[in-house]
Structure formats: C-alpha cells, structure tokens
Design a protein that fits this description.
The chain is of the alpha/beta class and 137 residues long. The protein contains three helices and seven strands. One of its GO terms (molecular function) is kinase activity.
Length: 137
C-alpha cells in the first residue's frame, strides 16, 4: 500500500463496522481484513466531534476513481441498507471500504481482490449525517 492518509471514524460507526468484520464470511474476508486495518489505524472519536469534511457511514460522497478516471456519487451504507439506497455503495464492497474516514481532498491507494489497486480521491461530501445533527444514524 503506497498511500494512506490519516482517517477519522465515528465511534458508533467503528463499533458497527467491527461487528460486520467479526461476522464476515469467506466471500467478504478480503474486504473485512482491509476494513479492520483501517479501524486499527484510524482515530476514533465521538459522533458529535466528526468534522464536516470527513466521510462517515451514510454520507453521500462524490469521489473519483483515479485509476479508471471515473467520478461517482455514492452513499456509503451498511450491507443491509444497500437495496433501499438508490446510489448506495456497501462499506463491505472493495471500493466502499476505502472511503470511510477520508477527508475532502484525500487520496488513497486501496487494494482490490485479485491483486489490483484503485486510487481514490474524495472530491466532496454532499450529505453527512453528523453535519445534519443525526449522530446515531
């Protein structure tokens, strides 16, 4: 991994993500392991303290996959909410896991199953629960 900026994670998100990681099946193990590394290196803080420019769970994020020169807008969700979220990307998807905790302007080299890598850049956070006072979403 060549580039990983510091990340900040909402304490409630961290607890929920750890439960997902602990329950991951073999199919999700690669992403779960990557996500667990992020939780271990991230700064975990209370939801009320999350800066407005940080990607948290349920944030709608505009980001660019620099590897494929493709900009996207997605809402980072837990797997159970994927079907109900029109522009959702699961935090247990390889690209979704790479978004958590990043700030606007951050770039990260993120591993993909099979040995590839994606370079992601956060361009904007269009909606964030903590910014809207929704600390327990």
């Amino acid at each position: 991994m060549s580039s990983r900026p510091p990340i900040i994670i909402n304490r409630l998100d961290a607890e929920r993500l750890q439960r997902l990681i602990d329950q991951a099946n073999d199919k999700d193990r690669f992403v779960a392991d990557c996500l667990e590394e992020e939780l271990e290196r991230g700064e975990v803080i209370d939801p009320e303290e999350i800066p407005a420019d940080v990607v948290s769970m349920n944030s709608q994020v505009q980001f660019t996959d620099l590897t494929r020169s493709r900009q996207m807008i997605r809402t980072l969700v837990y797997p159970h909410a994927l079907a109900a979220t029109e522009d959702g990307i699961s935090v247990m998807a390889p690209i979704g896991a790479g978004l958590i905790g990043l700030r606007i302007g951050d770039e990260i080299d993120w591993p993909l199953p099979g040995g590839g890598e994606a370079r992601l850049r956060i361009d904007a956070i269009l909606w964030q629960p903590e910014r809207e006072g929704q600390y327990h979403r």
